[in-house]
Amino acid sequence: MANLTKLSRFLSLMLRHRADDFGLTLDSEGFTDIDAVWAQVEKRFGKGFTQADLDTLLTENEAGKQRFEQRGEQIRALYGHSKVTEIEYEPAEPPEFLYHGTVDKALSAIRKQGLTGQKRQYVHLSTNTERATDVAGRRGEPILLRIKAKIAHDAGIVFYHPEPKHYLVKTLAPEYIEFPEPEDEG
Asked: Which of 63, 104, 107, 129 is the 20 to 30 Å CA partner of 26?
């Protein structure tokens, strides 16, 4: 079985950060020709990957996170672009609660400003606590925030749902975030 992590990382490199280096042109939404992308995969890995491997990544990766999207003969990375100005998604109604994992050093700013995209286009929110905890755990001891998504949506905050286990939002004010009690932090 092929190492799909290696393929996913290569696709991310091309579709998020270095399309020009591979002779790819991304449109304003980050899409490019899937045949041109596949030609670069074959150039790098030969026959090490199959179309079925790509189809698997277009569904979700081993961690259950969908990273890529295909529309017709076009493909794009769903998020994380460094060169695309703004990726647009269809608004979606969220469930009652979503989750965001963070770490202690960010908590004070979140209490004051809420959640912001920082250097990203969107704030990523998880549909389950396990995923939010895993994401935060990459940066230190995770702290879980519960997001009052339905209340925020009803108040006019726009949510997007590009893949099954995540929602996105531009910003989220502190009043829509349930914080842990101070003694529970860190």
From this structure: 63
